[in-house]
Structure formats: C-alpha cells, structure tokens
Amino acid sequence: MKLVRTIPEVRAEVGRARGDGRRIGLVPTMGFLHEGHLSLVDRCRDSADFIVMSIFVNPLQFGPSEDLDEYPRDLERDLAFAEERGVDLVFAPDDRELYPTEPTAVVTPKRLADRLCGLSRPGHFEGVLTVVAKLLGIVQPDVSVFGQKDFQQAVLIRRMAEDLNIPGAIEVGPTVREADGLAMSSRNAYLSAEERERALSLSRGLVAAVRAYREGERDVRQLETQIRERMEAAGGVAVEYVSIVSADDLEPLSRATDDAVAAVAARVGSTRLIDNTYLARPDAGLARLAEPD
Ligand code: PAF
C-alpha cells in the first residue's frame, strides 16, 4: 500500500493502475477508521480491483461551532487498518492541497439539504458535496462507496453525481454496528461510558420501529413516537429529530412503506449522533436485535 499527499501523485498512481487494466474504486473517509469504513473497502472490492481511500478531515463541512479541531485523527493507525484490509493507495492531502485558495466555485445543493441534518448544520452538505466532487474529479473512480449511516449525505451525493453527469457508480454500504447496536462512528470516541449507554437509545428506538413495522404498524406518527419515547426515556439524550421519510427523496411520509427510512439525530452530552434504518430492510446488526425475543 502506498501513501500519497498530493493530487499529481494520486493521478499518476491511478493512471498507472488504469493503464494496467484495473478498475478503480474510491472510499472517501475522514479517517479515524473503524469497521464501518473498512466494510466499505470490502464492498468496493466487489466491483473494483485498485482501491483508493482518501483520508481528509474536510474543514468546509464543519460549522464554526462544530468539532473540526477536536475531530479524532490518527493517521498511523488508519494506515495500518487500511493496509490490512487491502487498500492499494491512501490519499491523505492537507488543507492546502485541496483548498489552495478560497474556492471560487462550490457545490450547493438546491434541494434535500433543507431537512433532517441540514436543519441544524447549515452549509454542511455544501461542504460535503464540494469535497466529494473534488475527490471524484481527482480520482475519477469507476465506483465509489459511501456509508448508509450518513443516509442524507448518500442521497445527496447520488443526486449530485446524476445532476452533474459525474461518471462512475455510487454505491452505499450498510451501517456496521457494535454488538449492542450502537452504530459505528468516529465520533463515538467522544462518549463517556455513561453517555455510550444513553446513546444506545438511538438504535433501540430504531429496533422498536422495525419490530412495529414488521407487526403491521404503518402510521408514521405512531412509529416516530415509539422511537422518540425510547430516546427520551434514556435521559440525557437531546433529540434533534426523529423522522420517517421516503428513501428516494427524503420527503416526510404519513404512511410508512417498504421504502421508508427512519432517521434520528440527537445530542448525547456534547456529542451529536445520527442513525437510521430502512423499516423493511434493517442492516444485519439491527435485524439481529429486532428478532422476536
Ligand atoms: O462521510 C464522511 O466521512 C465525509 O462526509 C466524506 C464523505 C468523506 C466527505 O468529507
């Protein structure tokens, strides 16, 4: 595995691999890797045989009062994990490499960013789409893979790629969870043991909704109430939103369908956490927890 820091180096490495007839895959990350990221590498390898991972904590997607400075970073550890998982090339630029001057052009979502996480994180998705458009332009992968944990992000990236005719497939890999259901996230590192226990209420709420859906409940208000009640009962969990939306266009629903996604966000202490699930098709971790007792 090779580590490169500059755009010309990535282009040279990717160009060589493409010249050898290899299909290029990209897994964009902000580092502090966990099994969730590494599962995206596995997924990427299903349709590519030269895997590029980017590691870049993108300042453009953090608001002024957010955790850019505290965001966990450990490049040495990330490189070890990436190599072990078979990544071919890590691209870890610094801020000046990606943003040598204040950008003249950015990618501003016109729709779908005005809800869910977009409500409390103005400008966040503009930052995400801008950096992802840059990474896709730099690497020009045949396929890139994003995590379902950031569901709204994945929908917006797909739409951006369609709208801007960016070539290459965009795939979404399922959320990976700890055995007790907590969705893996680099931000879990901020949680104290007590906060981590409270944070389990997010996945427990989603499990309750998956079960209720399976048992025939279709009233979105009822389903959302079940989730919210579990989160509020945990104490110390400040619910930001509980919303059941259509997976395709993130529109709020009144009756849940097989394409409905339940999405939640909350603050536990000072840590903002998100989670989500398809009601009809939970990821393996949630499905296991939703099994009848
Ligand atoms: O999901 C993330 O880690 C980031 O938002 C991404 C897609 C790497 C862009 O910075």
Automatic annotation (TrEMBL):
The record, for CDD domains, names: PanC
Q: Cite the binding residues for ATP.
A: 30-37, 147-150, 176, 184-187
From the Swiss-Prot or TrEMBL record, state where the protein is found: Cytoplasm
**A GO-annotated cellular component:** cytosol
Keywords from the named record? ATP-binding, Cytoplasm, Ligase, Nucleotide-binding, Pantothenate biosynthesis
Molecular function terms from GO: ATP binding; pantoate-beta-alanine ligase activity
* Keyword ATP-binding found: yes
The record places the active site at H37
EC class (word): ligase
Question: For (R)-pantoate, which residues are the binding ones?
Answer: Q61, Q153
Coiled-coil annotation: which residues? none
Lineage, top-rank taxon, reads Bacteria
Cite the annotated pathway: Cofactor biosynthesis; (R)-pantothenate biosynthesis; (R)-pantothenate from (R)-pantoate and beta-alanine: step 1/1
State which Enzyme Commission number(s) the record gives.
Answer: 6.3.2.1
Q: What is its main location?
A: cytoplasm
What InterPro entries does the database record attribute to this sequence? Pantoate_ligase, Pantoate_ligase_C, Rossmann-like_a/b/a_fold
Catalyses:
(R)-pantoate + beta-alanine + ATP = (R)-pantothenate + AMP + diphosphate + H(+)
Which GO BP terms, alphabetically?
pantothenate biosynthetic process
Keyword Membrane recorded: no
Belongs to which family?
Belongs to the pantothenate synthetase family.
| Function according to Swiss-Prot or TrEMBL | Catalyzes the condensation of pantoate with beta-alanine in an ATP-dependent reaction via a pantoyl-adenylate intermediate.
Q: What else is known?
A: The reaction proceeds by a bi uni uni bi ping pong mechanism.
UniProt subunit comment: Homodimer.
> What is the name of the protein in this document?
Pantothenate synthetase
Lineage, please?
Answer: Bacteria, Pseudomonadati, Gemmatimonadota, Gemmatimonadia, Candidatus Palauibacterales
